[in-house]
Amino acid sequence: MTHSLLRVVQAGPLALVVDGGRFGVRHLGVTQGGAADWVSFHWANWLLGNALDAAALEIVLGGGLTLEVEQDATLALAGADLDARLDDRPLAPGTTFAVMAGQRLSFHQPRDGLRAYLAVPGGLATPVVLGSRSATPREQLGGPRGDGSALGDGDRLEWNPCQVRGRRLPFGSAQGVTLRGNQLALVPGAQIGHFSGTSLYRAFNATWRIDTRADRMGVRLLGPELRCRLGSMVSEGIPMGAVQVPPDGQPIVLLNDRQTIGGYPRLGALTPLAAARLAQCLPGKEVGLMAISRERALASYRSCLEAFR
């Protein structure tokens, strides 16, 4: 039996229900969705002893999101510092905290990072659509009403009562690894040999700036113009973190809510950890691309997963 836990007093600019993602449906044209910074999302659930892919809230920018507590509980917060407060008490990312009925939890302006994750015991009990609770607004799937919408004023978030196992993060930084550093590791792809030598030098030696045209579908990088000798391509499947280069020569990194196929040549794809790091970058932040081998990327990913054991 579910119980009301939180009521949305004021919806921020974008707060979504997310989980580990929607898989096995790309042949239907349905993208994966899920937490953009999967590392911080995992830590939020880990702090409560939840399954790592349990549904939680992804809160972008803060923007005045205000939630009223309707039942005593223990919650966890990880990811960006969005100046979260319980009534007037500041809340640090990377912690668990007790809430009591009648208190208000609010998020304000970003201090560090872009996306915060709020986890509840056992995960949010929203409708499962095509195997996932994640909201993907473009496809109108998942979320509180099953139609992909973000939180709205008056919405109620429910959970299934369970025992909480409170934990502390096993490292010093409260925000975790995805908010540190500006290098984005990339595994080169099949079309990389079609880019000019000058373009490849620029790609991996220039500084790129995050454009304002950035969302859960993709992030445009502003910098030197890249040129590819490859003409038209047959559209092909697009993996998470794919770095496409359209005719204007400015790379676009495709993220969780990306289209499932595309026809622009690609430098390659960001590693899972790099994609999570990019999801925390505010517009205007400067980043760099660093080519690494598939083997090194896989080892890094496995090492990251080991931390959650």
From TrEMBL:
Location of region: Disordered: 133-155
Matches recorded under Pfam families: CT_A_B
InterPro entries, A to Z: CT_A_B (IPR003778), Cyclophilin-like_dom_sf (IPR029000), PxpC (IPR052708)
Gene3D superfamilies to which the protein is assigned, alphabetical: Cyclophilin-like (2.40.100.10)
Superkingdom to which the source organism belongs: Bacteria
Keywords of this entry: ATP-binding, Hydrolase, Nucleotide-binding
Keyword Nucleotide-binding assigned: yes
Chain ranges of the Carboxyltransferase domain: 27-308
Name this polypeptide is given: Biotin-dependent carboxyltransferase
Organism field: Billgrantia zhangzhouensis
